[in-house]
């Protein structure tokens, strides 16, 4: 029997689609304990992804498999660099996600946005780890001028991104839709929902911009990479230790990187890489305070430098001894005040702070009673 030409063409397309899908399903592999490789089936992939604790149910689509293959096979060299750079930034992401009570797995989103390069800029005018465009940056009060671009600040940009994600989730009550809106704007997502007559991301994809259709699958693949890279024989290529283990100080006065480098023998390139938002290599005066990030090995020297040059060190309380504490992700100043049996005002005064916000890796001065034998790091 002769088929109508439309059915013949449709059958041909279906056959090609099935062949392409079969090729995609069979080409993705995972390592074995003996160093070999076996095909990574949808069932194994689904089981692995469910263990990542993503904030939504994932469908193993061809796009998800495609991006996993990009990270684990085709682009494995770049993936190893990304995994290494995660040591510089994941604790910062985890801090703000904890403070704003958002899912911790959202820390993988900047892998999609910037491949974890803090100073990257796009042709569309976006910049930083979270790729803020000027309009969004202004809305979240990120400073941009000839001296400072806070879109490149790992701390300030992360807090702004987390606030944006929280806003989008409050609007859509669905994480795939919130992530899609982060990529293309909430207006386009609302329009897609209206056209599709449903609010399921996986069902409305055809009405979203092409890049946004790939965005959530790319995020899933980034999370997969962060959790299962060893199963694919990948080895993180970590940056220098001085870029991984850092301390943060909040300062309010003008400080030149050149002067700090020459005074304390901190490599200028290290200061620049850790503080990319200061585009002129100096921190200007500002009442809100700016963050200075330095290698931990120089923390004591920087503390002394700030005490002497900026006259930050307070008078030691009588019958107390001085020690220091490094803020861990999720810490709040109120919690630390309770821990060290002091007030938030005292903690702020000891560290010359004009605001109560603290950040991961911040180097805080603490005074403890001499009778207290507990020494904090």
Overview of the molecule:
It is a single chain. The protein has 377 residues and is mainly alpha-helical. The chain has 2 domains: 50-232, Orthogonal Bundle (Lysozyme), CATH 1.10.530.10; 241-369, no CATH class. It is built from 17 helices and 8 strands. A two-stranded antiparallel ribbon has the order 1-2. Strands 3-6 form a two-stranded antiparallel sheet. The chain has a two-stranded antiparallel sheet with strand order 4-5. The longest helix has 24 residues, at 76-99. Residues 1-26 have low confidence and may be disordered.
Write the layout of secondary structure elements.
Blueprint (H helix, E strand, L loop, with lengths): L4 H23 L1 E3 L5 E3 L2 H9 L11 H13 L1 H24 L9 H6 L19 H6 L14 H19 L2 H10 L1 H11 L4 H4 L5 H19 L12 H4 L1 E6 L3 E2 H8 L3 H7 L7 E2 L6 E6 L3 H11 L10 E7 L6 H7 L4 H7 L12 E7 L8
Antiparallel strand pairs: 1-2, 3-6, 4-5, 7-8
Helix pairs in contact: 1-3, 3-4, 3-11, 4-7, 7-8, 8-9, 8-11
